[in-house]
Amino acid sequence: MKFDEVVDALSEHPDVITVGSMTGDFNLYCIVIGVTLEGVLKRVDRGGMPELQICDRVRINIFHQIAGGVDWRQGIIDLETWRNKGGSHSVAFKEFEKARNSTGESALAPSSRNRELFLALSADARRPLTEIAGMLGASAPAVARRLGDLINKRQVVFRCDIARPIFDFPIAMVLSLKVAPEHAEELAFRIGAWEETRFCASVASTANLIVVAGLRSLVDGEGFMLKLSGLKHPAEVLHRAINTRTFKVYGRLLDEDGRATRHIPVDPWLTSTGG
Prior knowledge:
The chain is an alpha+beta fold. The chain has 10 helices and 9 strands. Helix content is 32%, strand content 20%.
């Protein structure tokens, strides 16, 4: 199986949310999600993804939550308030920071009873509640309550993605960091809040922090490394690579310019439902 065929095969899995290529010893990476550790291991380490079995080498890092990236909080500031305050970008940013910092505890995986709601939102989170309610055979108020509960428990996060190669940060740097285990979670959230960060998670590995950061140019990579050196707790860089292309982001297949061409609903319950 050729490289492109492995990429295509991985991209078709509903629980593989992101697929990309990068420089270095490992030239391909993917992010797999699930509601149980057993389910994820079944996929990545027990033959659930046959294409992994024919790769020359596979390295697996386990994480329990994503601590950073492009997340969008619904209803942070309504349009009328935005206009009344002059439409300042700083106003929206302050509201965003307030929402981001309002929670600190880890979220639990959502129940399978919310699977259909999750899949509907995965396709288009901007759908009106009345439309989603019709799809689920429920009332709009009932769907609103369920969605509000998921948001309050941090079991669902909204993303706002753009075509990175033609917008602000066309290049991505992938870092494997080693930090003191007792500080890994804290640093994951701190780094995850930086505007350059696309993905950040503490993982069960010697390199216990993985970061994907967006760059405007390769020179910006040194600036990001300088920011890391200024952290309260030291972080040792064990591996550094450049993401050469992203083929899939959170269920959306991308062309070379980063534009979505097709969507595969993200399904963390795939293994728990016999998929």
